[in-house]
Structure formats: C-alpha cells, structure tokens
Inverse folding.
C-alpha cells in the first residue's frame, strides 16, 4: 500500500481530516528545507507538498513566485530537491512527500530517469500543474511503473467529462483548486466548494483535498468539514518570507500547529 | 500531404495543450468555437471586410530595386505588412480573434506584447469593437518601446509593466496567463503569436495566412512566377508561418526563417532556439524547442528586437525544421542594424528591427545568387517604434 493511501486510511478510521502544507524546496535556503519538513510533520502535517522551483511559475501568485525565485537563486535544481527528500526520508519513513511544480524540469531530466530517482529518494506523488490528462498518459506511465502517484488538479471550471477523465488517471488524492486564479489569490467561497464537491464525488473515489486561498485556521476547519484534506501553501510561504532566518522553522511550526488544532477540534 | 495539427493540437511531436486545469475548459471552448466559425460564411465575410476596409489589405509587394542593385545578385521583393493599419502584421490576427471574442460574448480582452505591436493591435481592435483591454508588457520592453506604450494608452488600453523574471515577453505571457486564469469567464486572451496551447498556433496561423495567400497571387502578377525563397523573421513565428504556410506545398520555393542571433549563437546571448539547437521543452502551453539550462529552467534571452526576444518558438516551425521543409538561420544584432540602415537609405522605408533580421539574411544571400533570382522578404512591421533603441545604439539622445 502506498504511503499516501495508508495516511488517508488511518485518518478515515480516526475520523480526522488530512492537513497538507506546501513549501518551496530551497526557500529561504536549502539548509532549512529538511528541518522545515520535519517541523511540519511535528506540527501535525499528514502529507507534505514540496514545490520544485521553476523559472516561469504561471499558475502561481506573487508569494510563491518569489519563493521560486529565491530557491533558484540558491541554486536549487530538481536533482537537489530529490536529495532533500532522500535526506528527509532518513528520519521519516512514513510521511508522504508529493513533489509539486511544472513539467519542464522533469522533461529536461527525462520522465523515466526522474521516476526512478524520485522513487529511490522516497517521493510518493507528483503533481505537474501544466500537464493535464490530455498530455499526461505517456509521461505518467513512467511514474506508475515506479510506484509514484500522479496527483491531479481539478478546478471550479472543470466539467463532468473532464472529472471522469481525471478519475481514471489520478492516484493518491485529487487536489481541488477552490478558486479561479493563481495560488494565494483572493478568498475562497465555501458555498461554491460545498456545491462542487458532490459533482466531484460522483466520479472520484479518491480522497479530495481543497486548496488555494486558505489563509487561517478557521477557514481551514470549515473547508475540512467539506473535504478530506486541506492544502495550505501561500500562507505558509508568506510566513517563511516574513520571518527572520532563525525564526523560520519555529514560526512555520507554530502556524501549522494552530491549523492542526482547529482541524481536530470537535 | 501536409496537414497539421491533429485534433489535440499536435504538430508531430510538438504543440499540444499544456495548461493548468482551470484554463482547460476555456481552451477547449475556444477550439470548439473556432472550429465552428472558421468555415462560417458570415464570419469569413466579416473578417475579409475588416481586413480590406480597416487594415487596408491587400498589402502590396514592392520591388526593392535600388537595394537589390546595391547588393548585387538576387532581386529583393518586400511584402509590405508595415503598411497595414497599426504598422505590422499583428493586426490580422488581432481582428480575427476579436471577432471570435465578440461571438463568444466576451467584453474584456487581454494580451501579452514584446515589441508592443501586438499590444497596439489588440488595443486598436478593442477600441474598434468597444471592449475593455489590458496589455501585459515586460518592464524592460516598456522602456525600449516607449512610443508603443503611449499608443496603447491613447487607444484606451491599460498597460501593465511586468517586473518578474527577465522582464520581457515571456514574463508578459506568464502574467497574461495569470490574469486569464483569474478572469476566465469574462475574458478573451488575444494571443499574439502562433504558439501557446492549441488552438492558438492553428488559429493565429490561419488568420495570418492572408499574407502568404496574397503573395502567392501577387508574385506571379509581378514576375510571372513564385519567388525562389520566402524569408521571414521568427520570434514566436506568426508572420513567418503566415507567409510560409501557403507555400509549404509549392515546390521549388525555399522557406527561410530568421531568428534573433543577438550577440551571436556562440555567445549564448541570443533568442534562436531553432538555430541554436535548443532542447525540446514545455512552456506557455506547448511543447517546442526551448532555450533552457540543463535543469529545465528557462534562460534569459537577448535580442536587440523586443519582438524576437523569446526563448521558445511556435510548434509548427519546430516541425518544419525537423521535416527540412523550412530552414532556420540567425542574424546578429549588428547585422540587423546594418540592414535597417540600408533599407532606410536605399528605399526610404524604415523597417521594424524584427523585420530587419529577415531583410539582413536576404542581403547576405542575395549576392551569392543570380540577378534572375527572386527573394520575397516579409517586411512584417515598420520601425517608428524602434527610434529610441536605434538612437541609443548610434549614441544619439532624442
């Protein structure tokens, strides 16, 4: 059984919701990434989304764009991100790690070489923002061959036929983008999410995570009432950006622990 | 029989639809609408009417006799897209897409622009059809193409300088895509070149094919036959594909795409993915030859010409390169400036720096050919917008 499925099975048995934080690998600097990942787990994260920096992050708002720029300035590459995951795995054999980013760094490495190295490093899932189902079949076959889960995004604009198509290819969980826009934008509309989720569940048996626009513990709790998992990215990256280096890990831990407490409140 | 793209927008291994999920339905809707209207007699008639009465088509072909004599060898003919309303070929496509936008009920249009010609064309059609218009432009390009920024504002558009990344065309594209993903229900993205997610490479090509279709009729009228070679500059490649495509099945006509060689291919500071043997990669919705480092990060490009300063190229040019149906070469900044000067002095025509690249290659090969040979250069735009850049290079303060 994959680590991702094991986590969701356990949470379901406990009647708890998954907390999935996102950070960009190498932000604010590569030495802090592994400590940050452990801190996130310590604060109650169930699955970790680790951003692979890209020069042209078209689906991201200014906060994650800047994180990507900082990481690239620090010399972070797909190879070094895999090394960070391998280092994390030495201390943590159970928490799933999902790499999230854009397709081109993987294209440049080659999908087969990437899938093999990622599996060796202890990666569990891969989400490429700019690879829709139409273009994913050949590439994602390499992921599956190495036991990696392809994670897909769904959006408010996604129609039934596309949801069904994603349902066929997706593994692990499905990430519902709760608003039209880039990461970190605006505020989400809970009633719109509530209306959309039944349409998704008609086709999708996997757990559904909701993200984009979740900025505080209270919103996270209300989203968790509707979905299986809550994804928080820009708000955490903002915490990293605004904290002095020596406070980064503690501040992130404190914020995520607050969200965890809200999610677990009866 | 050459017939691309396939239903998924693939030109052989290139093209496709590499977009975030939020935009997939919008891209799909655009494809369906375009497939419906492309053969609709009313749509075609309206497009033809606008091209004739608003743009001023057909654009003439001009025999640059003095220039040809000066350089010796092949005769040089210019397809005068610079004489179009707004001064470049970009208006052909902007009108086509604006007509689609109107039929789709979109009241807001956005665009990316490099040199500003597509931004001006989009601002123009937005004014013409009463639409709100926002143009994204790299902050560096806002500086070097200041006259066009002012033109867009006069036309009622909002120009947003983009400060991220290399602050040029690719970053303007990123920002336009971010706008589109946020405002997808109200907004039509008037994409400026024959690249991006399907159906853009196809529909931009189709709208620009008016250039080559006219030339195919005009050249036999002028010289009794088709030219020996058709030459066009290639950034994304819309003016080139527009004049090349109708000639693909015409035997004996060489198709030569001219990329921006910047400081020289060897220097690494250029914008020539095809000539520079860039690896294939994915950016802005399509798989193409793409300038990138070994880790798949897109590199900063350099060209004197903002309109060619882009790390990728349209997918159909990638295919035409592989098929050896078109040749791709690069012209350096200084060669483009020399051609710019030559056209000003010998013919009284001030070309855009983009088009000067195509002209420079014609001037390079003309002396190696007989006087009975004919080269058709797509003079894709006029150079008024480049006054600041050229003055700076010549050490003149305006």
């Amino acid at each position: 059984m994959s680590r991702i499925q094991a986590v969701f099975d356990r949470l379901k048995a406990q009647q708890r919701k998954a907390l999935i934080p996102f950070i960009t690998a190498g932000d604010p600097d590569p030495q802090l990434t592994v400590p940050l990942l452990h801190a996130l787990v310590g604060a109650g994260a169930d699955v970790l989304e680790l951003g692979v920096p890209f020069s042209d992050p078209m689906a991201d708002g200014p906060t994650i764009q800047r994180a990507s720029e900082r990481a690239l300035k620090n010399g972070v590459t797909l190879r070094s991100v895999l090394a960070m995951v391998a280092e994390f795995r030495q201390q943590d054999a159970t928490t799933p790690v999902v790499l999230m980013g854009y397709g081109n760094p993987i294209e440049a490495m080659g999908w087969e070489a990437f899938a093999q190295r990622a599996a060796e490093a202890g990666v569990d899932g891969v989400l490429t923002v700019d690879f829709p189902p139409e273009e994913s079949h050949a590439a994602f076959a390499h992921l599956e061959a190495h036991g990696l889960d392809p994670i897909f995004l769904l959006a408010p604009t996604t129609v039934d036929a596309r949801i069904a198509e994603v349902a066929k290819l997706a593994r692990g969980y499905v990430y519902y983008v709760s608003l039209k826009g880039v990461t970190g934008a605006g505020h989400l509309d809970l009633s719109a999410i509530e209306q959309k989720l039944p349409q998704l569940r008609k086709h999708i048996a996997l757990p559904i995570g909701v993200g984009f626009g979740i900025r505080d513990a209270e919103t996270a709790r209300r989203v968790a009432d509707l979905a299986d998992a809550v994804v928080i990215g820009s708000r955490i990256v903002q915490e990293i950006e605004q904290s002095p280096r020596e406070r980064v890990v503690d501040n992130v831990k404190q914020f995520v622990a607050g969200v965890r407490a809200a999610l677990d409140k009866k | 029989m050459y017939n691309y793209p396939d239903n998924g927008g693939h030109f052989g291994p290139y093209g496709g639809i590499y977009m975030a999920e939020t935009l997939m339905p919008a891209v799909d809707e655009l494809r369906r609408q375009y497939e419906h209207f492309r053969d609709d007699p009313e749509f075609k008639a309206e497009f033809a009417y606008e091209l004739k009465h608003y743009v001023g088509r057909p654009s003439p072909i001009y025999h640059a006799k003095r220039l040809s004599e000066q350089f010796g060898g092949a005769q040089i003919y210019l397809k005068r897209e610079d004489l179009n309303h707004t001064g470049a070929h970009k208006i052909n496509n902007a009108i086509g897409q604006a007509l689609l936008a109107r039929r789709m009920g979109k009241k807001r249009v956005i665009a990316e622009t490099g040199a500003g010609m597509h931004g001006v064309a989009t601002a123009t059609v937005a004014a013409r059809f009463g639409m709100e218009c926002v143009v994204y432009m790299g902050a560096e390009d806002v500086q070097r193409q200041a006259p066009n920024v002012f033109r867009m504002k006069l036309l009622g558009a909002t120009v947003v300088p983009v400060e991220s990344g290399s602050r040029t065309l690719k970053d303007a594209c990123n920002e336009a895509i971010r706008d589109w993903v946020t405002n997808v229900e109200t907004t039509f993205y008037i994409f400026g070149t024959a690249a991006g997610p399907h159906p853009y490479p196809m529909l931009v090509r189709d709208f620009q094919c008016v250039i080559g279709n006219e030339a195919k009729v005009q050249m036999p009228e002028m010289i009794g036959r088709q030219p020996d070679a058709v030459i066009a500059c290639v950034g994304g490649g819309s003016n080139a594909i527009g004049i090349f495509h109708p000639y693909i099945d015409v035997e004996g006509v060489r198709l030569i795409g001219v990329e921006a060689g910047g400081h020289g291919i060897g220097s690494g500071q250029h914008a020539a993915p095809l000539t520079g043997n860039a690896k294939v990669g994915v950016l802005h919705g399509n798989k193409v030859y793409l300038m990138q480092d070994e880790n798949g990060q897109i590199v900063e490009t350099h060209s004197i010409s903002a309109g060619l300063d882009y790390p990728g190229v349209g997918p159909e040019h990638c295919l035409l390169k592989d098929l050896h149906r078109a040749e791709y070469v690069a012209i350096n900044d200084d060669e483009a400036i020399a051609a710019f000067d030559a056209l000003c002095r010998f013919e009284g025509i001030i070309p855009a720096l983009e088009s000067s690249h195509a002209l420079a290659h014609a001037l390079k090969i003309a002396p190696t050919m007989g006087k009975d040979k004919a080269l058709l250069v797509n003079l894709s735009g006029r150079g008024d917008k480049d006054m600041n850049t050229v003055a700076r290079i010549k050490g003149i303060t305006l």
